[in-house]
Request: fold
Amino acid sequence: MQSKDELALRIGGLLYTPALNTGIVEKLETGAIPCLTALSLCLEDSIQDEALPQAEQALKQTLHTLRQRHPLGEGLPLLFVRVRTPQHLEKVHRLLEEDSDLLTGYILPKFDLSNCQRYVSLIRAFNAGREKTIHIMPILESKMIADVEKRIPMLLSIKETLDGVRDYVLNVRVGGNDFSNLYGLRRSIRQNIYQVGVIRDILMDILNVFAADYTVSGPVWEYFGADPEGEWARGLKNELELDLLNGFTGKTAIHPSQLPIIYNGMKVRRADYQDAMNILGWQAGGLGVAKSADGSRMNEVKCHGKWARKILLLGDIYGFQEE
Reply:
C-alpha cells in the first residue's frame, strides 16, 4: 500500500477536464493521453452555472462506467473531482457515493477561512468508518489570502485547520492565475511566475507556511502547443525548474501537451539519487559530513535527510533525467 507521501508525489501533472467531457472514458481506456498521472473532473470554473446539473449527471455516468470496467481502478490515473463550495461538495459526494471508491479525492477551490471549517467537517464525516481514504486538495487562490496585511496570520490559521485532518490532505495547491487576476496581471510566454513580484511574494508566503509539512503543487502554465520544442515548452521547463528550486512539487496542467514535460521535469539526477541513498544509509563513522558520490559537493546527514527522502521517492516514481 502506498504511503500518503508517495501518493502525493504520484500526482505529478494534474490535468483538468470539464466534467461534461463524455469522451474521457475512451481516452483513458485507450491511453490517448501520454504521461497522465492524475485527472481532475471539474465542476467549477469550466462549467457554466446553467450547465451544472448536466455536468453532475455526466460525471456520475463517467465514474459509474469506469468503475464497472475497472472496479479496483487498475490502469487508471488518480481521479479527483473539483467542486464549488462546501454545500456543493456535500451534494456531489452523495451523488457519487456508489462509485466513490474510484476517487482519490476532492479538489476544494478558493479554500480560506470563510469555508475551511465546513470543508474539514465534511471530509471527517466522509472518512468515518471508510476503508479507502477520500483525500482533499485545497486550492489557495482567493483575495482573502492575497491580502498582504492579513496573509500570514490567515495562512497559519488555515494550516492549523488542515493539521487537524492532515492524514486526509494529499496536496496543497495554489491558483497563480487567480492571484494574477486580482491585480490585472498576466505573464507572457517569455516570462515566469517568479518575475511577477506581487504574485511571487504570495507564493513564497504559502511555501513558507506549508511546504515543511505538506506537498505543495506549482501554479498552472497557461501556454501549450503541438511542438514539444516550441517557445511554450521552453517556458514551461524553465518555470518547472524554478518551481522545484523553491519548494513546489508537481504542477497543474491545462492541456495534455504539457504532461510529458511535467513528467520529465519530475525525474531526478542520478547523482542526486545516489547521494540520497548514501545519506539515508549513512555509513561515515562518527562524521556527519562526507563528499557526494561524484565528489562535487558536501552531503550532511543532519541537513539533507528530508531532501534525500523526497529524491528517493521521486526517482522511484519517475526515474532519472538524461544526463
Notes: The chain has a mean pLDDT of 94.
